[in-house]
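User: Please fill in residues for this 335-position structure.
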Protein backbone atom coordinates (compact mmCIF):
# COMPACT_ATOMS: atom_id res chain seq x y z
CA UNK A 1 0.00 0.00 0.00
CA UNK A 2 1.25 3.47 -0.90
CA UNK A 3 2.13 5.64 2.10
CA UNK A 4 1.10 9.21 1.37
CA UNK A 5 2.77 12.29 2.75
CA UNK A 6 1.54 15.85 2.34
CA UNK A 7 4.38 16.46 -0.11
CA UNK A 8 3.45 13.47 -2.28
CA UNK A 9 -0.21 14.52 -2.37
CA UNK A 10 0.68 18.07 -3.35
CA UNK A 11 2.27 16.69 -6.51
CA UNK A 12 -1.20 15.67 -7.67
CA UNK A 13 -2.74 19.13 -7.36
CA UNK A 14 -3.85 20.57 -10.68
CA UNK A 15 -3.56 24.12 -9.29
CA UNK A 16 0.14 24.94 -9.62
CA UNK A 17 -0.33 28.29 -7.86
CA UNK A 18 -1.21 26.80 -4.48
CA UNK A 19 0.27 28.19 -1.27
CA UNK A 20 0.77 26.64 2.17
CA UNK A 21 0.35 27.81 5.77
CA UNK A 22 1.91 25.74 8.55
CA UNK A 23 5.13 24.01 9.40
CA UNK A 24 6.55 23.34 5.95
CA UNK A 25 9.24 21.17 7.50
CA UNK A 26 6.47 18.61 8.03
CA UNK A 27 5.64 18.24 4.34
CA UNK A 28 7.85 15.18 3.88
CA UNK A 29 7.18 13.55 7.24
CA UNK A 30 3.48 14.15 7.87
CA UNK A 31 1.52 11.03 6.92
CA UNK A 32 -1.95 11.20 5.36
CA UNK A 33 -3.98 7.98 5.48
CA UNK A 34 -7.50 8.93 4.49
CA UNK A 35 -10.03 11.63 3.59
CA UNK A 36 -12.71 13.10 5.81
CA UNK A 37 -15.19 15.91 6.34
CA UNK A 38 -13.95 18.99 8.19
CA UNK A 39 -15.81 18.13 11.36
CA UNK A 40 -14.71 14.51 11.59
CA UNK A 41 -11.13 14.88 10.38
CA UNK A 42 -8.13 13.64 12.33
CA UNK A 43 -4.46 14.53 12.01
CA UNK A 44 -4.04 11.75 9.41
CA UNK A 45 -6.88 12.99 7.19
CA UNK A 46 -7.15 15.46 4.33
CA UNK A 47 -10.29 17.58 4.11
CA UNK A 48 -11.52 20.73 2.35
CA UNK A 49 -13.55 23.91 2.84
CA UNK A 50 -15.42 25.15 -0.24
CA UNK A 51 -17.56 27.99 1.11
CA UNK A 52 -17.28 31.46 -0.44
CA UNK A 53 -18.30 33.05 2.87
CA UNK A 54 -15.01 34.06 4.52
CA UNK A 55 -16.37 34.28 8.07
CA UNK A 56 -18.13 30.93 7.82
CA UNK A 57 -15.06 29.35 6.25
CA UNK A 58 -12.73 30.62 8.94
CA UNK A 59 -15.05 29.26 11.65
CA UNK A 60 -15.24 25.83 10.01
CA UNK A 61 -11.49 25.58 9.43
CA UNK A 62 -10.52 26.65 12.96
CA UNK A 63 -12.85 24.01 14.42
CA UNK A 64 -11.37 21.20 12.32
CA UNK A 65 -8.63 18.78 13.43
CA UNK A 66 -7.90 17.51 9.92
CA UNK A 67 -4.17 17.29 9.26
CA UNK A 68 -4.36 18.83 5.78
CA UNK A 69 -7.14 21.19 4.72
CA UNK A 70 -7.65 22.51 1.21
CA UNK A 71 -8.97 26.08 1.46
CA UNK A 72 -10.14 28.79 -0.93
CA UNK A 73 -7.56 31.32 -2.07
CA UNK A 74 -9.57 34.17 -0.54
CA UNK A 75 -8.97 32.64 2.93
CA UNK A 76 -5.21 33.10 2.64
CA UNK A 77 -3.88 35.46 5.32
CA UNK A 78 -7.15 35.27 7.27
CA UNK A 79 -7.03 31.78 8.76
CA UNK A 80 -4.09 29.86 10.25
CA UNK A 81 -3.44 26.21 11.15
CA UNK A 82 -3.48 24.72 14.62
CA UNK A 83 0.19 24.42 15.50
CA UNK A 84 -0.40 21.85 18.23
CA UNK A 85 -2.06 19.57 15.66
CA UNK A 86 0.73 19.85 13.05
CA UNK A 87 -1.99 21.13 10.75
CA UNK A 88 -1.27 22.36 7.22
CA UNK A 89 -3.57 24.61 5.20
CA UNK A 90 -3.26 24.52 1.40
CA UNK A 91 -4.88 27.43 -0.48
CA UNK A 92 -6.17 26.62 -3.97
CA UNK A 93 -8.71 28.02 -6.43
CA UNK A 94 -11.15 25.10 -6.20
CA UNK A 95 -10.72 23.04 -3.00
CA UNK A 96 -13.54 20.59 -3.78
CA UNK A 97 -12.09 19.72 -7.18
CA UNK A 98 -8.58 19.23 -5.80
CA UNK A 99 -9.97 17.18 -2.89
CA UNK A 100 -11.81 14.93 -5.34
CA UNK A 101 -8.61 14.20 -7.25
CA UNK A 102 -6.63 13.54 -4.08
CA UNK A 103 -9.38 11.27 -2.73
CA UNK A 104 -9.21 9.16 -5.88
CA UNK A 105 -5.46 8.76 -5.47
CA UNK A 106 -5.74 7.71 -1.82
CA UNK A 107 -8.72 5.36 -2.19
CA UNK A 108 -7.30 3.70 -5.29
CA UNK A 109 -4.60 2.25 -3.09
CA UNK A 110 -6.90 1.30 -0.21
CA UNK A 111 -9.11 -1.09 -2.12
CA UNK A 112 -8.71 -3.41 -5.06
CA UNK A 113 -10.84 -2.52 -8.09
CA UNK A 114 -13.75 -4.85 -8.81
CA UNK A 115 -12.96 -7.04 -11.80
CA UNK A 116 -14.72 -10.17 -12.97
CA UNK A 117 -18.03 -11.59 -14.12
CA UNK A 118 -20.66 -12.83 -11.68
CA UNK A 119 -21.79 -16.41 -12.18
CA UNK A 120 -25.42 -15.24 -11.98
CA UNK A 121 -25.09 -12.85 -14.95
CA UNK A 122 -26.60 -13.79 -18.33
CA UNK A 123 -24.44 -12.81 -21.31
CA UNK A 124 -25.28 -13.50 -24.95
CA UNK A 125 -22.70 -15.42 -26.92
CA UNK A 126 -22.27 -12.62 -29.43
CA UNK A 127 -21.66 -9.93 -26.76
CA UNK A 128 -18.12 -8.59 -26.37
CA UNK A 129 -16.65 -7.50 -23.04
CA UNK A 130 -13.34 -5.64 -22.75
CA UNK A 131 -10.46 -6.02 -20.34
CA UNK A 132 -10.66 -5.43 -16.58
CA UNK A 133 -14.45 -5.09 -16.52
CA UNK A 134 -16.82 -5.94 -13.70
CA UNK A 135 -20.17 -7.55 -14.46
CA UNK A 136 -22.32 -7.79 -11.32
CA UNK A 137 -25.00 -10.18 -10.07
CA UNK A 138 -28.00 -10.88 -12.31
CA UNK A 139 -26.82 -8.57 -15.10
CA UNK A 140 -28.32 -9.32 -18.52
CA UNK A 141 -26.29 -8.44 -21.63
CA UNK A 142 -28.04 -9.02 -24.94
CA UNK A 143 -26.92 -10.04 -28.40
CA UNK A 144 -24.13 -8.04 -30.08
CA UNK A 145 -23.67 -5.65 -27.14
CA UNK A 146 -20.14 -4.30 -26.75
CA UNK A 147 -18.59 -3.15 -23.46
CA UNK A 148 -15.23 -1.36 -23.46
CA UNK A 149 -12.27 -1.79 -21.13
CA UNK A 150 -12.41 -1.08 -17.40
CA UNK A 151 -16.17 -0.55 -17.29
CA UNK A 152 -18.32 -1.51 -14.30
CA UNK A 153 -21.83 -2.91 -14.78
CA UNK A 154 -23.52 -3.25 -11.40
CA UNK A 155 -26.21 -5.74 -10.31
CA UNK A 156 -29.47 -6.22 -12.22
CA UNK A 157 -28.54 -3.94 -15.11
CA UNK A 158 -30.17 -4.91 -18.41
CA UNK A 159 -28.26 -4.06 -21.59
CA UNK A 160 -29.69 -4.55 -25.08
CA UNK A 161 -28.73 -3.06 -28.46
CA UNK A 162 -25.93 -0.94 -27.03
CA UNK A 163 -22.26 -0.11 -27.29
CA UNK A 164 -20.58 1.07 -24.08
CA UNK A 165 -17.17 2.72 -24.04
CA UNK A 166 -14.17 2.47 -21.74
CA UNK A 167 -14.18 3.46 -18.05
CA UNK A 168 -17.97 3.64 -17.77
CA UNK A 169 -19.99 2.92 -14.63
CA UNK A 170 -23.61 1.78 -14.75
CA UNK A 171 -25.31 1.43 -11.38
CA UNK A 172 -27.93 -1.17 -10.36
CA UNK A 173 -31.34 -1.66 -11.97
CA UNK A 174 -30.65 0.53 -14.99
CA UNK A 175 -32.11 -0.50 -18.34
CA UNK A 176 -30.35 0.52 -21.55
CA UNK A 177 -31.34 -0.25 -25.12
CA UNK A 178 -34.97 -1.33 -24.90
CA UNK A 179 -37.45 0.04 -27.43
CA UNK A 180 -38.60 3.62 -27.07
CA UNK A 181 -42.22 4.73 -26.74
CA UNK A 182 -43.53 5.57 -30.21
CA UNK A 183 -46.90 4.77 -31.72
CA UNK A 184 -48.95 5.90 -34.71
CA UNK A 185 -52.74 5.95 -34.41
CA UNK A 186 -54.93 4.63 -37.20
CA UNK A 187 -57.43 7.38 -38.01
CA UNK A 188 -60.17 4.87 -38.83
CA UNK A 189 -59.89 2.28 -36.07
CA UNK A 190 -58.03 4.50 -33.55
CA UNK A 191 -55.76 1.55 -32.84
CA UNK A 192 -52.11 2.23 -32.02
CA UNK A 193 -49.38 0.84 -34.25
CA UNK A 194 -45.94 0.59 -32.67
CA UNK A 195 -43.20 2.44 -34.56
CA UNK A 196 -40.19 0.18 -35.31
CA UNK A 197 -36.89 0.55 -33.48
CA UNK A 198 -33.69 -0.50 -35.24
CA UNK A 199 -31.15 1.84 -33.65
CA UNK A 200 -28.73 1.39 -30.79
CA UNK A 201 -27.60 3.25 -27.68
CA UNK A 202 -24.03 4.53 -28.05
CA UNK A 203 -22.39 5.40 -24.73
CA UNK A 204 -18.98 6.99 -25.08
CA UNK A 205 -16.01 6.75 -22.69
CA UNK A 206 -16.09 7.83 -19.02
CA UNK A 207 -19.88 8.02 -18.74
CA UNK A 208 -21.54 7.31 -15.37
CA UNK A 209 -25.19 6.30 -15.14
CA UNK A 210 -26.68 6.02 -11.67
CA UNK A 211 -29.34 3.62 -10.36
CA UNK A 212 -32.77 3.03 -11.87
CA UNK A 213 -32.30 4.94 -15.11
CA UNK A 214 -33.89 4.11 -18.46
CA UNK A 215 -32.25 4.91 -21.81
CA UNK A 216 -34.15 3.89 -24.94
CA UNK A 217 -32.57 2.70 -28.16
CA UNK A 218 -32.96 4.79 -31.28
CA UNK A 219 -35.75 4.14 -33.73
CA UNK A 220 -34.14 4.80 -37.12
CA UNK A 221 -31.01 6.49 -35.72
CA UNK A 222 -29.05 5.96 -32.47
CA UNK A 223 -29.40 7.36 -28.98
CA UNK A 224 -26.01 8.87 -28.04
CA UNK A 225 -24.52 9.76 -24.64
CA UNK A 226 -21.32 11.78 -25.04
CA UNK A 227 -17.97 11.29 -23.36
CA UNK A 228 -17.75 12.25 -19.70
CA UNK A 229 -21.48 12.82 -19.24
CA UNK A 230 -22.99 11.89 -15.87
CA UNK A 231 -26.61 10.80 -15.42
CA UNK A 232 -28.07 10.77 -11.90
CA UNK A 233 -30.60 8.26 -10.55
CA UNK A 234 -34.16 7.92 -11.88
CA UNK A 235 -33.55 9.70 -15.19
CA UNK A 236 -35.19 8.78 -18.49
CA UNK A 237 -33.61 9.40 -21.88
CA UNK A 238 -35.98 8.67 -24.78
CA UNK A 239 -35.18 7.34 -28.26
CA UNK A 240 -32.94 9.22 -30.70
CA UNK A 241 -31.69 11.66 -28.04
CA UNK A 242 -28.16 12.97 -28.47
CA UNK A 243 -26.35 14.32 -25.39
CA UNK A 244 -22.95 15.98 -25.72
CA UNK A 245 -19.80 15.75 -23.62
CA UNK A 246 -19.47 16.44 -19.88
CA UNK A 247 -23.15 17.20 -19.37
CA UNK A 248 -24.91 16.51 -16.04
CA UNK A 249 -28.47 15.22 -15.73
CA UNK A 250 -29.49 15.39 -12.08
CA UNK A 251 -32.03 13.04 -10.51
CA UNK A 252 -35.46 12.76 -12.07
CA UNK A 253 -34.59 14.45 -15.37
CA UNK A 254 -36.70 13.38 -18.37
CA UNK A 255 -35.55 13.95 -21.95
CA UNK A 256 -38.13 13.62 -24.72
CA UNK A 257 -37.35 11.79 -27.94
CA UNK A 258 -35.17 13.19 -30.73
CA UNK A 259 -33.88 16.05 -28.57
CA UNK A 260 -30.28 17.24 -28.91
CA UNK A 261 -28.41 18.52 -25.85
CA UNK A 262 -24.99 20.16 -26.14
CA UNK A 263 -21.75 19.92 -24.20
CA UNK A 264 -21.17 21.01 -20.59
CA UNK A 265 -24.85 21.47 -19.70
CA UNK A 266 -26.44 21.10 -16.27
CA UNK A 267 -30.07 19.97 -15.97
CA UNK A 268 -31.64 20.45 -12.54
CA UNK A 269 -33.65 18.03 -10.43
CA UNK A 270 -36.89 16.81 -12.01
CA UNK A 271 -36.51 18.96 -15.08
CA UNK A 272 -38.38 17.92 -18.21
CA UNK A 273 -37.21 18.54 -21.78
CA UNK A 274 -39.87 18.24 -24.50
CA UNK A 275 -39.19 16.08 -27.54
CA UNK A 276 -37.50 17.36 -30.72
CA UNK A 277 -35.80 20.34 -29.07
CA UNK A 278 -32.27 21.66 -29.48
CA UNK A 279 -30.47 22.62 -26.25
CA UNK A 280 -27.19 24.49 -26.81
CA UNK A 281 -23.80 24.17 -25.11
CA UNK A 282 -23.18 25.29 -21.52
CA UNK A 283 -26.87 25.59 -20.70
CA UNK A 284 -28.28 25.54 -17.16
CA UNK A 285 -31.86 24.32 -16.63
CA UNK A 286 -33.34 25.07 -13.22
CA UNK A 287 -34.83 22.35 -11.01
CA UNK A 288 -38.44 21.46 -11.81
CA UNK A 289 -38.40 23.32 -15.11
CA UNK A 290 -40.46 22.30 -18.13
CA UNK A 291 -38.56 23.16 -21.30
CA UNK A 292 -40.80 23.45 -24.38
CA UNK A 293 -38.61 25.61 -26.66
CA UNK A 294 -35.06 25.46 -28.00
CA UNK A 295 -32.35 27.02 -25.78
CA UNK A 296 -29.36 29.01 -27.07
CA UNK A 297 -25.78 28.41 -25.95
CA UNK A 298 -24.84 29.55 -22.43
CA UNK A 299 -28.37 30.45 -21.39
CA UNK A 300 -30.00 29.85 -18.00
CA UNK A 301 -33.68 28.89 -17.96
CA UNK A 302 -36.18 28.08 -15.21
CA UNK A 303 -39.90 27.77 -14.63
CA UNK A 304 -43.00 26.19 -16.17
CA UNK A 305 -42.76 26.79 -19.02
CA UNK A 306 -39.02 27.50 -18.79
CA UNK A 307 -37.88 31.00 -19.69
CA UNK A 308 -34.47 32.67 -19.72
CA UNK A 309 -33.42 34.15 -16.36
CA UNK A 310 -29.80 34.74 -17.29
CA UNK A 311 -29.98 38.53 -16.97
CA UNK A 312 -31.49 38.25 -13.50
CA UNK A 313 -28.65 36.18 -12.05
CA UNK A 314 -26.23 38.21 -9.94
CA UNK A 315 -25.31 36.03 -6.92
CA UNK A 316 -22.86 33.12 -6.64
CA UNK A 317 -21.82 33.60 -10.25
CA UNK A 318 -18.68 31.52 -10.29
CA UNK A 319 -20.24 28.54 -8.49
CA UNK A 320 -23.34 28.62 -10.68
CA UNK A 321 -21.48 28.74 -13.96
CA UNK A 322 -18.98 26.05 -13.00
CA UNK A 323 -21.94 23.64 -13.07
CA UNK A 324 -22.12 24.12 -16.82
CA UNK A 325 -18.51 24.96 -17.55
CA UNK A 326 -19.31 28.60 -18.24
CA UNK A 327 -16.91 31.38 -17.45
CA UNK A 328 -17.86 34.08 -14.99
CA UNK A 329 -17.50 36.87 -17.54
CA UNK A 330 -20.40 35.62 -19.67
CA UNK A 331 -22.91 36.64 -17.02
CA UNK A 332 -25.03 39.73 -17.58
CA UNK A 333 -25.85 41.45 -14.30
CA UNK A 334 -28.64 43.60 -15.76
CA UNK A 335 -31.91 43.40 -13.80
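Assistant: Residues filled in for all 335 positions:
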Amino acid sequence: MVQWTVESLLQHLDDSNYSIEGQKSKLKSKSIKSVSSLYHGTSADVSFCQTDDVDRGILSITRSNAGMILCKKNMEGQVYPKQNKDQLLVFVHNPRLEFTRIAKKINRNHSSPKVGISSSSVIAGSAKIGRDCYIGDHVVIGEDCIIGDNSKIESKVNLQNCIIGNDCIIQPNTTIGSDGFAFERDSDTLELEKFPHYGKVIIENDVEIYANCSIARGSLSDTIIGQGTKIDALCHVAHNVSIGKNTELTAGTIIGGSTTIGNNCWLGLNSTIKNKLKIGNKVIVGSGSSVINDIDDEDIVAGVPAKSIKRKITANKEKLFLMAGQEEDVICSDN
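For context: The CA atoms of residues 93 and 256 lie 38 Å apart.
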